[in-house]
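Predict the 3D structure for this chain.
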Amino acid sequence: MKLYIKSSDCISAQATFESGLPEEINQAEEGRLNCLKPEYKKYISPKLLRRMSPIIRNGVSCSLSALKAANIDVPDAIIVGTALGCLKDTASFLTQLIEGNEELPNPTHFIQSTHNTIAGQLALLLKCTNYNFTFSQMHNSFECALLDAQLMLLDKQANNVLVGGVDELPDVSYELTKDLDCYKKATLGEGGGFFVVSHEAAEVELKGIKIINSETCDIVEELKHFNLGVEDIDAVVGGDQVENDSTYTQVHETFCNTPYVWYKPFVGEFGTASSVALWVATKAIEEQCIPQCWMKSGKDSGTYNNILVYNNVGGEQSIMILSKN
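Done. Predicted structure below.
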């Protein structure tokens, strides 16, 4: 049974929302990349908007945009991946506890600090009582959500599934992460991508997803599981953080003659950055074009039938493959 991506959208530090791959890149400021704020009021009422933290606004707006593009009012399931959840609300709640000597903190920040807040808000807004789940598996959070969606569709428990990944970078998180040197020389970022995955035929086929629970990865062998060879891949979307990222040396050597796209220098490193990578791959197939500014090596071929998305952060690896239907 084939699965397809009916629609997608992405909110990031680039002009990606309700758009294709931008041909101009916004550069990082002070070592971080924060999301460009879309017109939230287009999707969320001002009354609700005031109570939402940035991650909820981004997740809800991106999801509703993807559903609108797929002409779906209520999905059969809502599945969200987030590595660290609502950090801004978590920080606000803990700060109130400390400053107020643990007396009578505002419960709103606690209620909205849980990881499943985005999925819950979507269910309330859409009046959706169907399957609702949130995955928090660090850098494989989005991949776990996508695998769950795949299993639901293959088991015929759903026809249209809304699935996505989203994380945020509030000031307190940025300062702590840089002080602890968690990501070394990488530029920190935030954002997310949401997709409607379905049985119904569409232009982009979700050919495969795999989380690799090993310190090593033989890309050639992994491709064989999807009946593909190196020569079948028309482009690679890699998660390189910096110019000479040794983590991706094998991938570069294996696909030395294949257009190589990178995205983390433009959207930043965060737990569910791979959702942005999948959006980039989706748009490349839909538009049959990749702007040169997204290329790390090679040139736009104008023909993309199979695209490999590979992500590796500290040994947490994943492979996603999209094909043109």
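Residues 4-198 form a domain with the Peroxisomal Thiolase; Chain A, domain 1 fold (CATH 3.40.47.10).
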